[in-house]
Amino acid sequence: MKILLLGKNGQVGWQLQRALAPLGEIVALERKDAGGDLADPQGLAAAVRAAKPQVIVNAAAYTAVDKAESESQLARLINTEAPAALAREAAASGALLVHYSTDYVFDGSGSAPWQESDATGPLNVYGATKLAGEQAIAASGCAHLTFRTSWVYAAHGDNFIKTMLRLAATRERLTVIDDQKGAPTGAELIADVTAHAISQTLQQPAKAGLYHLTAAGEASWFDYAQYVLALARQARPQGVKTAAGGVQPIASSQYPAAARRPLNSRLDTRRLQAAFGLQMPPWQQGVTRVLREILESKGIA
Ligand SMILES: NC(=O)C1=CN([C@@H]2O[C@H](COP(=O)(O)OP(=O)(O)OC[C@H]3O[C@@H](n4cnc5c(N)ncnc54)[C@H](OP(=O)(O)O)[C@@H]3O)[C@@H](O)[C@H]2O)C=CC1
Ligand SMILES: Cc1cn([C@H]2C[C@H](O)[C@@H](COP(=O)(O)OP(=O)(O)O[C@H]3O[C@@H](C)C(=O)[C@@H](O)[C@H]3O)O2)c(=O)[nH]c1=O
Ligand SMILES: [Mg+2]
Predict the structure, then answer these.
(1) pLDDT at 294 (0 to 100)
(2) Per the database record, which ranges form the RmlD-like substrate binding domain (predicted)?
């Protein structure tokens, strides 16, 4: 079986290179490879036609949430037009398309975990372009697995864990938002679940569809920051500089940003767990493992 992977060097793409390897031959592309640039949907479509994959996995996306507010056309090209082009190719060839979306498709109201069938209402450009991407895939009629995930981190790539370690080393005091709640989710978990779901869906096509895929439990960004810094301090008290004044919780209103973000980013993963016979691990599990890996790579654990 041949799998075409787009965005091989992102957090999730990197882990997919590992997790998908046992399933077949992987053709993995990044932006600079021929046909690997999602800002060129025609070139992308041509790459799919040339590779003739049975499965297309799109791990590439425009993920700079604040910057997207002023680069909406580019964000739309990458997050909406490119997935739409992949979906057309998948529909025409019969390939299974695997794609990722986000908690930011929701407006963040209430406190109940969002279900796949709930009404969407993105608050920012990134969320709107990701939602339009999902919708284009669903409308194309291609066989697809769309996974909405949240707050992704990994040892490879840039993310909130690394930002907190960096800021803690340079600032007296960290202030972190305490009224946005969600689930930090490891790229490793996302990739492992993806591989499992692809295998099952190829056997049972009725399993195709839209799924929420996050770790279990919930946290605010403040809870998450505190957890990371406490663990970092514990792992190597001398090696990790942590802000002397500690981490202070703040409200979203006290953190001006170009893009608005949802307060309630909780995603209900019961559909995924039931369809694929899975139990999601608590978010702390993956964060602990990846933090150790990050500290080891810095030579401080
Ligand atoms: N990060 C997060 O917190 C969340 C992510 N998601 C979704 O999960 C998926 C994976 O995200 P994640 O791995 O975290 O993202 P990253 O930001 O880590 O990686 C995104 C990848 O996309 C690539 N990319 C960007 N623009 C293009 C382009 N024009 N052509 C080809 N490749 C491009 C980047 O390459 P380059 O380095 O060259 O720019 C990078 O390798 C995405 O669909 C994202 O929307 C969902 C929820 C949360
Ligand atoms: C750096 C920093 C951030 N924050 C806040 C801002 C923001 O609300 C939150 C997280 O910061 P980030 O920059 O990681 O936020 P952001 O890039 O919006 O993260 C999102 O990325 C996209 C791709 C997704 O799909 C989402 O699931 C989510 O992971 O923490 C603080 O409160 N204090 C700080 O010092
Ligand atoms: Mg970000």
Answers:
(1) 95
(2) 1-294
- pLDDT tens sequence across 156-201: 999 999 999 999 988 888 999 999 999 999 999 999 999 999 999 9
pLDDT of residue 226: 95
pLDDT at 241: 67
Q: ipTM more than 0.90?
A: yes
Catalytic residue list contains 126: yes
What pLDDT does 246 receive? 84
Smallest-distance ligand from the CA of 149: 1
Query: Of residues 126, 153, 211, 224, which has the active-site annotation?
Result: 126
| Pocket of ligand 1 contains residue 75 by CB under 6 Å | no
Cβ of 241 less than 6 Å from ligand 1: no
Give the residue, by CA position, lying nearest to ligand 2 atom 20. Answer: 151
Number of domains in the chain: 1
Residue 25: which CATH number?
A: 3.40.50.720
Q: Is 59 in the pocket of ligand 1 (CB under 6 A)?
A: yes
Residue 27 is classified by DSSP as E
CA distance 187 to 15: 6
Residues paired with 152 in a beta bridge: 185
Which stretches of the chain score pLDDT less than 70? 237-245, 300-301
Cα(181) to ligand 2 centroid in Å equals 11
Contact 81, 42 (CB under 8 A): no
State the residue range of the domain holding 197: 2-159+185-217+266-281
Task: Tell me, yes or no, whether 75 lies in a domain.
Answer: yes
Tokens found for residue 300 = 């401080």
Q: In 81-115, which positions are buried (b, 16+ CB within 10 angstroms) versus exposed (e)?
A: bbbbbbbbbbbeeebbbbbbbbbbbbbbeeeebbe
Query: Do the domain assignments include residue 247?
Result: no
